Amino acid sequence: VLENRDLQDSIKPQKVEFHSLNFNNTLHWQPGRAREARDTVYFVQYKVYGQSTWQNKADCWGIQNHVCDLTNETSDIQEPYYGRVKAALAGVYSNWSLSCRFTPWRETVIGPPTIAVVHSSKSVILKLQAPRSPYKRKRGSKIPMTNYYDLLYQVFIINNLLDKQHKVLVYEGKHKVIKIEDLRPGVSYCIMAKMYMPMLDRSSAYSSRQCTML
């Protein structure tokens, strides 16, 4: 019995937590300290805060991965959720390991926008696109993150002649198509953008650099 209890403790999953990017919500955990961890299988359940019954996640029942996609199960983005994981090895089951409370709307990380650059003679036209959530409209297109939050685009320009690290904010607002004028011909510029959420005072990471020369 003691050996079983030791095994129960040593396979119990550690650090159970939700990770979320643009409402793609996944539960992650680390294996217990047992050496035979690679033979361990895991079982995942979830529930809405306040509910008494846990739901099994069928796709994550008896799996060897350390991650489980709960995007569809956590699609009511204002609700707080819990996830929990238990492990089994050689017929012995650990106790459940519980995540912290997770509210997608409050905790998801917003990704950067994408930028398309169109040239004209002395200016650059940028077409910005907000990141999209995994949730779909009736017609099948994915709903952009701007539907869920009051988001602003922030556009930065780097003049490669002056200083490769110095970013200048040239635009902040909601327009998806913007024009940057008064650029010097023959000078290389790099453009980056991010999403800014005033209400929570949070920013996305920067988009990848788009470099251009007039």
Polypeptide structure, described:
The longest helix is centred in the N-terminal third of the chain and has 10 residues, at 2-11. The chain folds into two domains: 1-106, Sandwich (Immunoglobulin-like); 114-213, Immunoglobulins (Immunoglobulin-like), CATH 2.60.40.10. The protein has helices at 2-11, 104-107; strands spanning 14-21, 24-30, 41-48, 55-63, 67-69, 81-89, 92-93, 97-98, 114-119, 124-129, 132-136, 142-144, 152-159, 168-173, 177-180, 188-197, 202-203, 210-213. It contains two helices and 18 strands. Strands 3, 4, 6, 7 and 8 form a five-stranded antiparallel β-sheet that branches. Strands 13, 14, 16, 17 and 18 form a five-stranded antiparallel β-sheet that branches. A three-stranded antiparallel β-sheet has the order 1-2-5, with no helix packed on it.
Distance from first to last alpha carbon: 76 Å
Q: Runs with pLDDT <50, length 5+?
A: none
Main beta sheet strand tally, sense and closure: 5 strands, antiparallel
Q: Outline, from the CA principal axes? A: elongated
Helix segment tally? 2
CATH architecture of the largest domain: Sandwich
CATH superfamily of the largest domain: Immunoglobulins
| SSE ordering | HEEEEEEEEHEEEEEEEEEE
Counted up, domains total 2
- The assigned structural class equals mainly beta
- The CATH topology of the largest domain is given as Immunoglobulin-like
How much helix, percentage-wise, in residues? under 10%
Report the top-level CATH class of the largest domain. Mainly Beta
* Average of the residue pLDDT scores: 92
Task: Please tell me how large the radius of gyration is.
Answer: 23 Å
Q: Beta-strand level of the residues, as a percent range?
A: over 45%
Number of strands: 18
